[in-house]
Amino acid sequence: MLVTKKCPNCGTEQVGLDLQETNGSFVCSKCEREFVVENEIIKEVLDKNNHTKTNKN
Question: Which of 1, 8, 44, 52 has the fewest beta carbons closer than 10 A?
């Protein structure tokens, strides 16, 4: 199922995301930051050690 999410950093709408295929993650097309969606909460991926920062959607 394709969804639309708003980047919590820059506000750009990310249209047509297949979050099942990417295990909930997406990279913003404008600011290029990586996020993961967990239970409708968007968390920023800060580094490869899975440390995340929570952002409200």
Answer: 1
